[in-house]
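Notes from hallway chat w/ T.B., transcribed later so I don't forget. T.B. wanted the structure written out for a chain they're using in a teaching module, and asked if we could keep both sequence and structure tokens in one place. Agreed to drop them here.
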Amino acid sequence: MSLFDVVTVGSAVIDHIYSLSNLPKPDGGAFVREHATDVGGVAANVASGLAEFGNKAGIITRVGADDAAEIEADLQARGIDCSRMQAGPEESSYTLILRDPDGERMIVAGGQSVPNLRLDARDIEYAGDASVVFTSAYAPDEVVSKLVTARERREISTLVFDLAGPLSELEGRGTTPETIDRLLSVVDLFVAGEVAAHSYFGGGADEAIATLTQRNVSRAAITQGSDGARLLEGDTVTDIPAFEVDVNDTTGAGDTFTAGLIHTWLLNDYSARNAGRFAAAAAALNCAEPGARGDLPSEPDVREFIETQ
């Protein structure tokens, strides 16, 4: 029996959230109406969503000593094991999240703690104690490559990868195209937003799905924001419509969607359609409040929401 349902590997950061009058154009400007800080990062967000669904989650991440206590306290309060969190002398990684009154946003990242993350044998052993290991393209290439090797050697049983950003954004800090190429032969669930997918596959959702099918990726999801998502299982494609809600903030919706897929599709063996609907509903609910984890729903919350639609 696994010690953890899920271990996430990658970023736990401080989000600086600015509510603006508008998203500025090049050489333009905007006015800050509100400013807040919170803990975010793809690995932290996915772990938080899964913990809210009732799963036992752990995280492997690196933070700067300046923010270590705040980040660890937040994650532990959500029931996430932080025993493999590293703290270094460098500046903690952070994001600047700029969002307009309609909930659309821009995200700018900085700091060196996440790029400095590395895995040792104890980290791989820790990840091996989980039913599912999740990481994203924002994790350093050395980290993702080591997880791919561990999956090839069956040291971890199930690997989920989120191509979280376009290749230009990943250069010098995240996963390289060569490692993504290698990963496709062993990944158990591949997730990508449409913008990130276009940068790697050279086209939209159809092109991404076609390539993933050719590479025999067993399960994949291409998210398309308000247009929903396309799920691939074997050679079957299932279209999942988005749920309509009053959007406050779309930040973190993709991470909540991924957490919903892991919870249902991998840990509880839902059909692609039912897993996709659960994940889409969870993501919609999280858009109702500001912040990447503004209103993380429980499993009963998601089920009740679906029943009302």
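Follow-up for T.B.: The first strand starts at residue 4 and ends at 10. Might be a good example for the class.
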